[in-house]
Amino acid sequence: MKEEQLIEDAQEFTIDESISKVFHNGSLHYDQHKVKGVIMPLRFQFKKVFESRSMLANVLENIKNQLLNTKSVKNFVQGELWKKKCEMYPGKQLIPYFLYNDEFEVNNPLGSHSGQHSVSNVYYSFPCLSEKESKLEYVYLGAVIKSKDVKSFGNEKCWKTLVDELIDLEVNGVDILTENGVSRVYFILGLVLGDNLGLNSFLNFNRSFVSTSFCRFCKMNKLETHTANVENISLMLSEINYQVDVTENLSSESGIRKISLLNEIPSFHVVDNYSVDVMHDVFEGVCHYDLTHALTYFMETAKYFNLETLNSRKSNFDYGPIEIDNTSGDITTTHLSKKHLKMSAREMMTFAYCFPLMIGDLVPQDDEVWKFILNFFEIIDMILCYEINTAIIDLFRHKISMHNTDYVRLFNDNLKAKHHNLTHYPTVLRKSGPLKAFWCFKYESKHRQFKVYSHATTSRKNICLSLARKYQLQFAYSIVEPTINDGWYTINESDQTKSGYDSIISRILKVSNTSVKSFSKTKCNGYMFKSGFYVAVYENDIEIYLILNIFMVEINSIALFCQKLNMIEYNPHYLAYDIVQGQLGEFSIINIKDLVGPPLTKIKTSRGRTMIKVKEYYSANII
Which of 60, 104, 284, 536 is the most buried (most CB within 10 A)? Predict the structure, then answer.
């Protein structure tokens, strides 16, 4: 595989070497003990990724097309931060990448050795891959070190080798072989991603949130954050006040432990790392606080329903085929008192999506807490958009301000750190693009590949090198036999089916009947589309269509044959559309690229109403 240039050795580097006790053949001795980490051959990996399948040409064309679109934001390269970085290297071919750092357990987390071999992985991905960026095959391993070594020896010793390699990729670039010859490309660190604890640790901010100033974006006092509903521009972190805080060395007040090693990268500084994690901030944070407060009010103060009714409706709710696999168990009084529902982030997404339809008929329209919850769910809809109209950023800021103000007023409770993070979301959106592109879901899913391998081997002698070598084989396989369709969709020949609509489609498109290939399903942008699902399209207003058939006439021209729903009416109390059964209109052929958000399904409420709730509807065309 080395001869075929599919593998290049991972590099082991020494973090520390000292005299300590070691065991040889069961006997205790004092000898030199070397602590090592592993860094992957990044220059080799970057080169192979962009030389395969005309990747470089496709990415450069995608960046060019994205920058031409000024009406909406759907990629990091359209944000202010990337434009600032590009000014440092005029006339050069630049490609951004993201870094992600997180720890995970390779042993049994409940066993006696839990934590002993926990490892810290660094992944990287390329945000300019457009639709492909969300797929796990396009998340790559950069380095792996034992977590306890990072805690013992610090970031400077553990990550210095990695940072030096990243500096080289930016300053000297990589020669990429293309159809038109060799092209020199410079790779620029766009953002460092992670949850709050992971980012604070990796960027040398305080690991805890007890500091007088705990925020990575601003210097607002912790007491002020308890009631602050907007971002204070005058308190934003800058390179100047960051350096002052580092010099004064008052980490308990500033929240900065020491100067970050990553600041050595020419185009990067931690104060410009406009990255947030929606997964932990919202679905494992704000959602729990808001919903537990609201449910307590609905059940104990207003007495609209009781806990038994809530759980009955929750367990018997018509989630539909898309959300049914992400349901959670019953809610208990303990969950409500602790302000934490027993749900994963993905289960919380489903619960929040279905909540208005689940109990909306039991709550009066003029209830203030209900209006607060609906406002919060509209904020979530904005957060989850892969493409968002720049005209709504001010609306986004207003809704967050109203949310934080109402939380303090209605529940007589202080805002938490994750509520404060929300105030920075509009700025992050403007600087770095859609917030959904930064969440930790796909990176935490990447951990599973390494957990599975670590469970398949009983050796822990050098678990970091074992994981690195296993990944080298996976990387080589992805170059030789890509498992992902090169187009913007994935479709399998085994899903091809006969359809009674082929003749209608061929007449509309004026092609032969035999040239139309019908399929039962297709996957696009990580979403599965099937016949019988619904989709939303913006045509001066939201229009909803029933998918009758999925078909292809030419390669890369997958489309949907649909029928329009005529009788629909938006109901703001449920944040959903009322559907009149049997009111289907004209046929239409819709390109998947023209859809507003992912596929939808009908939901029946407890009162027998049929409704459809649209997702990700704050798109490019909707103001």
Answer: 536
Task: Please list the residues that pair with 519 across neighbouring strands.
Answer: 496, 550
Summarize pLDDT for 413-429 with one digit per residue, the tens. 999 999 999 999 999 99
| Segment 171-179 long-range contacts (CB within 8 Å, at least 24 positions apart) | 171/266, 173/92, 174/43, 174/46, 174/47, 174/50, 175/47, 176/47, 176/50, 176/51, 176/56, 177/51, 178/51, 178/54, 178/56, 178/57, 179/54, 179/57
Please, are residues 565 and 546 in contact by the beta-carbon 8 Å criterion?
yes
Q: Give the separation between CA 451 and CA 548, rounded to whole angstroms.
A: 41
Closest CA to 183 of 9, 54, 5: 54
d(CA 148, CA 118): 7
Q: Given pLDDT bands bounded at 50, 70 and 90, which one contains residue 20?
A: confident
| Mean pLDDT along residues 276-283 | 95
Residue 132 confidence (pLDDT) above 60: no
Average pLDDT, the chain: 89
CA distance 79 to 77: 6
Q: What is the pTM of this model?
A: 0.92
Across-strand partners of 39?
A: 11, 143
For the chain, give every domain's residue range.
40-204+440-480, 207-259, 278-423, 489-612
pLDDT at 163 over 60: yes
> What per-residue confidence (pLDDT) applies to 524?
81
Coil/strand/helix, residue 186: strand
Q: What is the pLDDT of residue 229?
A: 95
DSSP tag of 2: T
For residue 578, the one-letter residue type is: D
Dist. CA 325–CA 240, nearest whole Å: 49
Q: What is the SS3 assignment for 585?
A: strand
Output the pLDDT for position 486: 46
Task: Find the Cα–Cα–Cα–Cα dihedral 298, 299, 302, 303, rounded to 10°.
Answer: 140
Give me the residue label for tokens 């604070």: 200
Does 483 have pLDDT greater than 50?
Answer: no
Three-state DSSP at 81 gives helix
Question: Model confidence at 68, in pLDDT bands (50, 70, 90)?
Answer: low
Displacement of CA 602 from its chain's centroid (Å)? 26
* φ and ψ at residue 227, rounded to 5 degrees: -130, 0
Contact 16, 157 (CB under 8 A): yes
Q: Amino acid identity, residue 326?
A: N
Which ranges of 219-286 does DSSP label H, i.e. alpha helix? 222-225, 239-248, 251-254, 278
Strands (E), 90-213: 93-104, 119-125, 139-146, 174-178, 181-193
pLDDT at 48 over 90: yes
CB atoms within 10 A of CB 522: 22
pLDDT in tens, 100-120: 999 988 877 666 666 677 899
488 in Cβ contact with 140 (< 8 Å): no
Residues found in the chain? 623
pLDDT score, position 190: 96
The conformation of residue 284, written as its DSSP 8-state character, comes to I
Distance of CA 92 to the CA centre of its chain: 29
Using DSSP bridges, classify how beta strands 93-104 and 181-193 pair: parallel, antiparallel or unpaired. parallel
Pick the CATH number of 489-612 from 3.30.160, 2.40.50, 1.20.81, 2.30.30: 2.30.30
